[in-house]
UniProtKB/TrEMBL annotation:
Protein name: Aspartokinase
PANTHER family: ASPARTATE KINASE (PTHR21499), ASPARTOKINASE (PTHR21499:SF59)
Swiss-Prot/TrEMBL keywords: Amino-acid biosynthesis, ATP-binding, Kinase, Nucleotide-binding, Transferase
One Pfam family matching this protein: AA_kinase
GO molecular function: aspartate kinase activity; ATP binding
SUPFAM superfamilies on file: Carbamate kinase-like (SSF53633)
Residue ranges constituting the Aspartate/glutamate/uridylate kinase domain according to the UniProt record: 3-282
The species this protein was found in: Algoriphagus hitonicola
Length: 422
């Protein structure tokens, strides 16, 4: 039997009708049995769904935003299908279900669960359109609800995978189908033990591909992007970015940890554990080689630049002039863990602890409330975190000159600063 392959297509690859037509062309000579295709929400749909949640939370008019989003998807269908095609009624039905979910009660306390139930519609709608179009073109695929495969705990927005139950579901539900047809499913979403929709973290579709590959001992995973492969910097910020032909798992994992957006941070580990190679290729130039990530055992010395937006610098200062001890760091990390907040940078001094975290609605407020009795808490929002892996002194000097720096840190192989661009 041929080895299973997993393809993942992000929102940019299905952002409009022309993109979906391009997707079909990529599949002309590639679609086969034992192929799993993971697809994200179309374009900026997830952002639009987040705006709907925000309007609902403020008790403002979210219906108009929902109608605009529905009209966008139906317009894409107009450009892909004949007017009597059943896809139109299917998409309208998804939006009826979406509106029923948005009308449910929403508070700060149930925000994360509400969020997952709403944003999951982006992937469900996108895969419905893509599946129908591929079949319409004679490229037969089976549609699979990812929530029947990816089993998780109930930590909404950052759900942890129940690997044993997920592996069992993949073996029982996916393998028999893959022996007959390619299967199309959603990225980013799963379900807890009682069937409630969960998500794996923003941009988590890459992780979905890795989960399915690991559970089925796939031969490879290919992530299709709007860039030539993995570059040493974001080409939108740095036009002269250099393409990596290959990377070792460890170096790729390091890049994703610091915020390189080309691959989701959790993607590498399950693939490395099973020695499954990961290819990052361009859907705009599908015949190009791209980047291969595998256990090469070699470190590429090219400096890598990573910029993370919407960062918050939080400082916890001792209130009684005592020194920072291990117990104080544990206290801060306990609260961060409860709030599912990941630390992007940590620095301690004699009387303070400074951390850098991503912006998340309500989370900063809750963190400050929980620790205000033990520490004097100060914070700065709207910052950038710049990381340079394998830096040289010229790079550090040049980039430092472009920031008002609030905190910086150096190790043997990495330089980081937090601040505001000048």
């Amino acid at each position: 039997m041929a080895k299973i392959a997993v393809y993942k297509f992000g929102g940019a690859s299905v952002k409009d009708a022309d993109s979906i037509k391009n997707l079909a062309e990529i599949f002309r000579n590639r679609l086969r049995k034992n192929l799993i295709v993971v697809v994200s929400a179309m374009g900026k749909t997830t952002n639009a769904l987040e705006e709907i949640i925000d309007l609902r939370l403020k008790s403002e008019d979210w219906y108009s935003k929902s109608s605009i989003l529905e009209a966008f998807h139906l317009k894409v269908c107009d450009e892909l299908f004949e007017s009597e095609h059943p896809v139109f009624s299917r998409i309208k039905n998804w939006f009826i279900q979406l509106k029923l979910v948005v009308e449910r009660p929403l508070t700060k306390e149930n925000y994360d669960e509400f969020y997952d139930q709403v944003v999951s519609f982006g992937e469900l709608i996108a895969t419905t359109i893509v599946m129908e179009y591929l079949c319409n073109q004679g490229l037969i695929v089976l549609w699979q609800d990812a929530r029947e495969l990816i089993r998780t705990n109930s930590e909404f927005r950052f759900a942890k995978v129940d690997w044993e139950r997920t592996r069992s579901a993949c073996q029982l539900q996916l393998l028999p189908k893959l022996d007959l047809f390619p299967v199309l499913t959603q990225g980013f979403i799963g379900a807890d033990h009682i069937g409630r929709t969960t998500t794996l973290g923003r941009e988590g579709s890459d992780f979905t591909a890795a989960i399915l590959a690991a559970c089925l001992d796939a031969g490879s995973v290919t992530i299709w992007k709007d860039v030539p492969g993995v570059l040493n910097a974001d080409p939108k910020r740095f036009p002269n970015a250099t393409l990596f032909d290959e990377l070792d798992y460890k170096q790729a994992a390091q890049m994703t940890f610091y915020g390189a957006s080309v691959i989701h941070p959790k993607t590498i580990k399950p693939l490395a554990n099973k020695s499954i190679p990961l290819y990052v290729k361009s859907f705009l130039n599908p015949e190009a080689k791209g980047t291969m990530i595998y256990g090469s055992g070699k470190q590429n010395p090219i400096p890598t630049l990573i910029v993370k937006e919407k960062q918050i610098l939080v400082t916890f200062q001792m209130t009684d002039f005592s020194f920072v001890e291990e117990q104080h760091i544990h206290q801060v990390y306990r609260e961060l863990d409860l709030l599912k907040l990941r630390v992007n940078l940590l620095q301690t001094s004699a009387i303070g602890i400074s951390i850098v975290i991503d912006y998340q609605l309500f989370k900063l407020e809750k963190l400050v409330e929980s620790l205000a009795k033990s520490f004097k808490v100060r914070y700065n929002e709207g910052l950038q975190l710049l990381t340079i892996i394998n830096p040289d002194e010229d790079l550090i000097r040049d980039f430092s000159a472009n920031y008002t720096i609030m905190l910086e840190q150096r190790t043997r192989t990495t330089f980081q600063l937090v601040g505001k661009p000048i």
